[in-house]
Amino acid sequence: MMRATIALVRRRRERGASVRFLRQVDYVGSAPRNTCFANALKVCNDSIGPDGPRYTVALGWIVLRYSDETAVLQHAWNIDVTTGRHFDVTELADGNNSGAQYVEDPELRIALNATFELTPVFVGRSFLFRDNNFYEIASNQGSGATRPFEELAWTDFSTPALLRR
């Protein structure tokens, strides 16, 4: 397990979340990038039969290692209700999810379900993990900005803090 995955699981559990590392999530498609929740929801809606939905949405984190740092992205994928198999249909920037690690975070899904009608969550937070620290990636659109984003040290891994509104 990557250091970033271990750190994420530890920090979420310290805040009372019952997260779990998934040993296998199959990458099975090439649905559009940057719309993971919509992609996973479409899979569910397209599979509704007379006995109900065949798939459900899982929400949590995908952890991707790069040369100098690790990306930790809030992410959605699917679970086959009958078999329990986890699978991901959303294409990533590099075209596949090989080497990615997944952490299921049911508290994020519960919070999203409880608040979506009142306060929609448009996008989850994304982090870089470097030197044993997490940094949120924030848009830097102010005048005189030299980079399109900035990195802000992040320490609050409570569920409300992780849902961007």
What would your notes on this structure say?
The protein has 165 residues and is α+β, with helices and mostly antiparallel strands. The chain has 4 helices and 11 strands; from the N terminus they run αββαββββαββββαβ. The chain has helices spanning 3-14, 36-46, 106-115, 159-162; strands at residues 20-22, 26-31, 55-65, 70-80, 86-90, 101-104, 123-124, 126-130, 133-139, 149-154, 163-164. The strands form 2 sheets. Strands 1, 2, 3, 4, 5, 6, 8, 9 and 10 form a 9-stranded mixed sheet that branches. The protein has a two-stranded antiparallel ribbon with strand order 7-11. It is globular. The mean pLDDT is 85.
Spans of at least 5 consecutive residues with low confidence:
none
Q: Based on CA inertia axes, which overall geometry fits?
A: globular
User: How many E strands?
Assistant: 11
Largest sheet: 9 strands, mixed
- Approximately how much helix is present in the residues? 10-25%
Helix count, per DSSP? 4
The termini sit apart by: 31 Å
**Please, what is the average pLDDT?**
85
Radius of gyration, taken over Cα atoms and rounded to an integer in Å = 16 Å
Summing up helix and strand content along with how strands pair, one would put the structural category as alpha+beta
Determine the oligomeric state from the structure: single chain
Approximately how much beta-strand content do the residues carry?
35-45%
Q: How do the SSEs run, as a string of H and E?
A: HEEHEEEEHEEEEHE
